[in-house]
Amino acid sequence: VSSISPYLLSLQNQPLPVSAFSFPIHQRPNNYRDSIYSSKHFRAGPTTSLRAAQCHHSRRLHPRQNQCPNSLVICNHGNFDHVDDEGPSLEPDDEVSTASAATPTSYTSSSSSSAAAATAPTATTTSYTVNAATLRFNNKLNTLSKSYDATTATRVEKMLLQALENYQFYLKYKHNNNHERNKQQTRNEANDDKSTHDEIQDTLIEISTNNSDLIIPNTISFTNAITAWARCTRKDSAKRAQALLDRMHALYDEGWTHVQPNKISYNSVITAWARSAEKGSAKKAEELLRRMYEFYEAEGGAVDLKPDSRSFNAVINAVARSREKNCADRAKFLLDEMGRRYNEGDEDLAPDALTFGAIINAYANSLEEGASDKAAQLLMHMESLYQLGFENAKPATFVYNACMNAFAKDPLGQGSAKSGSGISSAEKAQQLLNSMEKRYEEERDERVKPDCISYSTVINAHANSATTQSGENADAILTRMIHRYLIGDNDCKPNAIAFTAAIKAHSSSINATISTHASASGDDCDFESNDISSNNCKKQIELSAKRCEELLQQLCLLYQTCSHDRTLKPTAVTFDLVTRACTQARNVEGVWRVKEL
């Protein structure tokens, strides 16, 4: 804790939250009563809602819950591996959960819940082996679902629906044959009263035993297709993924237990909504999480239906990225809910760095007053959790960068204004950078090593502070960045963003100098006047403009000598800032030199 910046240490004096992870859960966002927060699942803990209770009560009469000796309740967990089952991150190109069909060899009937299985009467269970055709089919879908393009998902869904149509046709053909055969048998035989559900299960076992060429679409098949849509670049990808999940539920309600949706199916759809730019996608993701809990409780608490940290992370990511009003507070409430459930014994809901990072980034993008302090408090909670033994809660580089970005964008930190702590936002950001450098030097942990984003963000924070010292402070950070790169740290390679931010800082210094002189003398800086105040003002403006031109020349030289590296290419903003600085300094020759560059 000693390596944390003085500003963060000052937060220790503030009251700690009730939750082990964050703030009290009763602090809900306003004007959001119709969302997931109004659900009982996020107020009264794991008790059964009215809808869930009705579903649970009706299970006695549901065909898929028939407890006859020949009933088949397929357990979708424990019998296959999940490939690329990673949670969402802050980067848009990270992996989505994918169900693999390479491992599964059999489906075995089991109880929905281990507790229920311990108390239920012993019943004869049946099982069937997934045939070779289905294994090959699922493997092919799994391979195709790894593509990030606009066409593969359509192909995967088409293959799935065609296989589903073929299987439904076979079931209908089998049912008609059984019906004709039953007409010839006596009415007292047991098969005469067999339900459609029982016929489906018997046919399923018969196909797996005697017919290895017919594809039987199952949970893995649908989940692979959903994952393909989650990775698709089409605008309607999330809707298509949602439609497949709804189709799974419809088939499951008809007695197709081998297509029961699981948490991987839900997580993939939630991730699809998180990546969607469609309006209202965040609320869709929150609604899916609520449905997951209802389905989980209605099915007796099956392990493979229980929402985990990836489920919450996906929803938090969706909310944090939505840029909607109060999105950061809504994401923060979900974090509180994770902490509450974890404290009640759900060890699958331990928040990690990705969880906190998404919310801190949301506060940074909210541009609300005081958002940076909320981000800093979350960072402080992460430090506390790490000291308590939560290894996954250790702040990583991207978390520090998000918090420094919150300081750089905080409206209260614009200009020379200081917060209640007496420290400007730029100084707070620089303190975080100092703590990162110190921590990396002491621990040599790559997870906290500063990178080019870290330094560029602090430079931008000084530029936004708009003080007469902004340019000098930005130059100091840029020099540290270049030094780290020269000693072999390729992660700190300077780029056009860093140089442009430094130029912006010097441009801000010019504006601050003019403003300070105007407030002191009552008029703008007069370049023709010979009084001491005007001469000092003129000299500072000329030095800042000259430094802007030097930085631009260095950037252009690097771009030419580094084989026209795109990360070093100056932008129109870069040239405009330097041109404006030269104009303010009455440097006509400098303006022409910029145009020639």
Task: Explain this structure.
The chain is mainly alpha-helical. The protein is 57% helix and 2% strand. The protein contains 22 helices and four strands. A two-stranded antiparallel ribbon has the order 1-2. A two-stranded antiparallel ribbon has the order 3-4. Helix 8 (237-253) packs antiparallel against helix 9 (263-274), helix 12 packs antiparallel against helix 13 and helix 19 (496-521) runs antiparallel to helix 20 (532-561). The longest helix has 32 residues, at 152-183. The two termini are 48 Å apart. Mean pLDDT is 76; it is low at 15-98 and 100-126.
Tell me the strand percentage band: under 5%
- Compressed to H and E, one letter per element, the order equals HHEEEHEHHHHHHHHHHHHHHHHHHH
- Specify the number of helices: 22
Strand order of the largest sheet: 1-2
Low-confidence stretches: 15-98, 100-126
Rg estimate, integer Å: 31 Å
Average pLDDT value? 76
**Helix percent band:** 55-70%
List keywords for this structure.
mainly alpha, 57% helix, two-stranded antiparallel sheet, 597 residues
Concise synopsis of the structure shown:
This protein is an all-alpha fold.
List the helices and strands and how they pair.
Blueprint: H1 6-10, H2 50-58, E1 82-83, E2 98-99, E3 106-108, H3 114-119, E4 127-129, H4 132-144, H5 152-183, H6 196-210, H7 219-230, H8 237-253, H9 263-274, H10 281-298, H11 309-321, H12 327-343, H13 353-366, H14 371-387, H15 397-409, H16 425-443, H17 452-465, H18 470-486, H19 496-521, H20 532-561, H21 572-584, H22 588-596
